[in-house]
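Exam revision sheet. Question 4 asks you to relate a sequence to its structure. Input first:
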Amino acid sequence: MKIVDKMKDENLGIALIYNFTKGYQKPVPMELYDVVLPLLYNDTLRAEILNHETIESCIQACSQKEADFKEHILASIEEKKEMTSKALGIAMLQKILNFQIVNQTMCGMALDTNILDLNEAIHLGYMLQTIRKDDIMQLLHQEELKIVVLQSASVGKDIDLSQIETLGHVTMYEETKQEEIRERILDADIVITNKNQMNADVLSGLTQLKLICLFATGTNNVDLDYCREHHIKVANVKGYSTDTVAQHTLALLLHLVEKNAKYDSYVKSKEYAMSGRFSYFDDVFHDISSMTWGIVGLGDIGRKVALIATAMGAKVQYYSTSGRNTTSDYQQVDFETLLKTSDIITIHAPFNLQTKYLFNEEALRKMKKDAYLINVGRGGIVEEKALVKVLNEGHLAGVGLDVFEHEPLLEDDIIYSIQDMDKVILTPHIAWGSVEARQRCVDEVYKNIVAFIKGEDRNIVNG
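Answer key, structure tokens:
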């Protein structure tokens, strides 16, 4: 839609207002019409609007392209009031719009006409469905937010972060060392990080900081009490990796149970060719359907894993570390019972005071000697020194770890002292990291910031 000055009259205004009302898809509060023509007559906004799903990101993108965009729109709102009133009046007389009181508010509703679709106006209507005029005025008066991304590489260099860049003046770092954090966020309104330690030493005196967003679900790296006391909101992301972590849990378990690495090596080494046997039974494996599968932590991921375990025919039982997650779908047991009776134990719990070293030497020795242990929760839930000790003594059939006490592992990490590496599979904290999950993670952070800009709490963990 290209507009030249001589076309900016009531007739075009009628068409724009009608299409806006059509896109709004419900009665439009009269005050909202005040911003329609000022926005749609702006060349920068029309060029941008179809690239955005929210008015917040659209206004921010326009502000980056046109230095005085907000000032121009604010001035235009006053200038276009008379034109808007005339266009609304003509639209009513021509029976293009109908006006009724809805919930004690005068509203406009679109009637059937032959006016052509103007996509930008329709999309603006869609954008403003949940927005009040006051919200838009607040966006237009709001100074540009200063956003600092400390660890963009933590979600991968193949992930699109461009939508975050539409929300303010964004400074992005691939990685940030602990000693670099404070200097980089001194004047930030919003900080986005993953594993940086956001403690009182880092945050003290940062009066401008209003929000910390995490590319993660876990919040143990943020001093939530300090943030609460100093009115810094903290937002995490949830649910983005449920399917991915459950999938990786199964992959680790099958690697251990099926012993495919050994079978693969047996064939590729030509031992199979020279054996004279059509099958190889020296390394046995068992049906998962014959096993009891114990789950530690029955949150979203734990429940997804329980579904997979059930589909494979295993008997499922669980232990809730918080005591809050309960269901009648599976048998709930205490921790000791879970240890003693499970053939498989998979960990999907957060790291906190209740779960630190939950699997210590005493707990590990209570597990069946031929049991399998998978940890895709957090490093520190399993005491690695104790785990290495019991493994080297021949206890446990196999262990899969995607998380560790030190990430990355130390060069002389105790994990490397496991004597029989065929009994373990180790992956570098990537259970959550499918490309789809990582993009969902970034998308969720974007939505958290948009909500914050609108004055709403979304995924705030220290409210």
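Marking note for examiners. Residues 137 and 413 are 56 Å apart (CA to CA).
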